[in-house]
């Protein structure tokens, strides 16, 4: 079962082979562990397959390559980068942090990174499981999976039984690996929480509705899920695949399997340009509704069947959209007429009325502020709170939060932007030193908020309830109080925090 040659080089014996890890920060770490066969050659754009294993002792002290993705030298002005070389198609690996590879049966956290379905990696230092493992006595797993064109292009027709979501087959394979192997790392395979942010939160919900995966975990943490996205059918997605193939100059999937992956990523960048719309978050690659892996919109999977029994913690940041638009001068110059025209997509002939409603919530609001709130509501806040409403009406457990703490970076233009809660929930600011959006935050305020959030996440992972002594009482969301935990320099439970947005968008559908 478990062995240890010495304290600094823990060894674990698995059915697939032996692993030698390393002790870091007081916890045992096993990196770059393959959980599925490399999806290369003829296996490109095919469902994940079990890894055949290895002989001898495999070194597990270095992360595996990240999934192929676009990369900006010098980083970006918000995160400073979200996915770093090396990149390779042979990317289906995971990483494990554990206080000890023993028989303790600890709760398990499986983290799925976000990145707009085109970037990110479970191997990034941002997502190190060290703090959760050490502070919560948890076993933590982070995964790499196929993203961009290699993970999200769909082929064939709606009538076909083959999976369209190759990324999801990767994640199911990783969860299966966790269920079968995590006991050897000191984890409890019957007490698994899956958590993710943004695209990773969509993944978490999708897993809750997958025929196999929904039986493999009992809790879900959904950080900033963009549930307002339209999830296309395979037929709808085929139109975008055809555009991509045109860009690539390929006639079909066999031609595409012969194209080096850097050219596939380059063509994905061109698809960005062709699919962007003013006032909308760019998403050239999306999950796909199919019969084999994702039968309905991911948000619906948490309301019906086995997914409805999963404990859910869900929330968003107050200014989600500022992440993508707040530093863009083209949006800073937006006019009222432009924003009203954009709002008409949702509110029709009541768009001007909706503009006024948004404007009234922010004294001195500019058109760009109204647009940011509109996008944040449509994509994140309103569909998340509506999920909470529906689960509460069913008597299903759900806890809701809003992250309100603004960053002073970039003269405050980001506010409490998308992704800003991540270093607080992981409580590992030393791993985010390259991220510009954290500049200027005072450590005293920062550290108190991070401790409160981090401990709440640990409590939820361990017990299904986020309450802990250093946090104000956090009641489950229900249709009367609509309790929402407001995380800020002063954290407090607030009733119906998203009520204005919820009522405004509900009226648009009446």
Automatic annotation (TrEMBL):
Cross-referenced InterPro entries: AB_hydrolase_fold (IPR029058), CarbesteraseB (IPR002018), Carboxylesterase_B_AS (IPR019826), Carboxylesterase_B_CS (IPR019819), Type-B_Carboxylest/Lipase (IPR050309)
Keyword annotations of the record: Hydrolase
Domain of life: Bacteria
EC supergroup of this enzyme: hydrolase
PROSITE patterns xrefs: CARBOXYLESTERASE_B_1 (PS00122), CARBOXYLESTERASE_B_2 (PS00941)
Keyword Hydrolase in record: yes
Keyword Mitochondrion annotated: no
Pfam families (alphabetical): COesterase
E.C. number(s) listed in UniProt: 3.1.1.-
Signal peptide (from-to): none
Domain Carboxylesterase type B, chain residue ranges per copy: 8-492
Family (UniProt): Belongs to the type-B carboxylesterase/lipase family.
Cited PANTHER family: CARBOXYLESTERASE
Protein name, entry field: Carboxylic ester hydrolase
């Amino acid at each position: 079962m478990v062995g240890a040659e010495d304290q600094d080089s823990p060894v674990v014996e698995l059915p697939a082979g032996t692993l030698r890890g390393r002790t870091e920060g007081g916890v045992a770490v096993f990196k770059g562990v393959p959980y599925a066969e490399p999806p290369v050659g003829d296996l490109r754009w095919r469902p994940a397959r079990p890894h055949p294993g290895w002989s001898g002792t495999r070194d597990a002290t270095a992360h595996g390559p990240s999934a192929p993705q676009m990369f900006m030298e010098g980083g970006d002005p918000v995160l400073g980068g979200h996915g770093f070389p090396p990149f390779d198609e042979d990317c289906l690996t995971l990483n494990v942090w554990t206080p000890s590879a023993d028989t303790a049966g600890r709760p398990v956290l499986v983290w799925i990174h976000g990145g707009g379905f085109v970037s990110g990696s479970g191997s990034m230092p941002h997502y190190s499981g060290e703090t959760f493992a050490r502070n919560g006595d948890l076993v933590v797993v982070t995964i790499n999976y196929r993203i961009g064109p290699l993970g999200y292009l769909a082929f064939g027709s709606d009538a076909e039984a083959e999976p369209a979501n190759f990324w999801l087959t990767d994640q199911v394979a990783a969860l299966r690996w966790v269920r079968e192997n995590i006991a050897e790392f000191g984890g409890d395979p019957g007490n698994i929480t899956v958590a993710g942010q943004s695209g990773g939160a969509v993944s978490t919900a999708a897993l809750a509705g997958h025929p196999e995966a929904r039986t493999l975990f009992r809790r879900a943490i959904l950080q900033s899920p963009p549930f307002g996205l339209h999830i296309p059918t395979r037929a709808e997605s085929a139109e975008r695949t055809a555009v991509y193939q045109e860009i690539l100059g390929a006639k079909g999937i066999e031609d595409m399997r012969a194209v080096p992956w850097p050219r596939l990523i380059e063509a994905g960048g061109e698809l960005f340009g062709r699919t962007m719309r003013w006032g909308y978050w760019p998403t050239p690659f999306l999950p796909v509704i199919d019969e084999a892996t994702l039968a309905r919109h991911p948000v619906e999977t948490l309301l019906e069947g086995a997914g409805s029994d999963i404990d859910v913690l869900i929330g968003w940041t107050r200014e989600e959209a500022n992440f993508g638009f707040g530093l863009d001068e083209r949006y800073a110059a937006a006019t009222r007429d432009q924003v009203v025209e954009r709002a008409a997509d949702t509110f029709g002939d009541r768009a001007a009325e909706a503009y006024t409603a948004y404007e009234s919530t922010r004294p001195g609001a500019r058109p760009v502020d109204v647009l940011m709130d509109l996008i944040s509501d449509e994509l994140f806040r309103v569909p998340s709170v509506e999920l909470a409403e529906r689960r509460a009406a069913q008597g299903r457990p759900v806890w809701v939060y809003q992250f309100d703490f603004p960053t002073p970076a970039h003269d405050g233009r980001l506010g409490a932007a998308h992704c800003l809660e991540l270093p607080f929930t992981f409580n590992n600011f030393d791993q985010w030193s390259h991220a510009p959006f954290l500049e200027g935050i005072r450590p005293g305020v920062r550290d108190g908020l991070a401790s409160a959030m981090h401990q709440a996440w640990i409590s939820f992972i361990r017990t299904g309830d986020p309450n802990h002594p250093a946090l104000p009482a956090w009641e489950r969301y229900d249709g009367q109080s609509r309790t929402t935990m407001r995380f800020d320099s002063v954290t407090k439970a607030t009733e119906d925090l998203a009520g204005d947005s919820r009522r405004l968008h509900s009226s648009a559908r009446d």
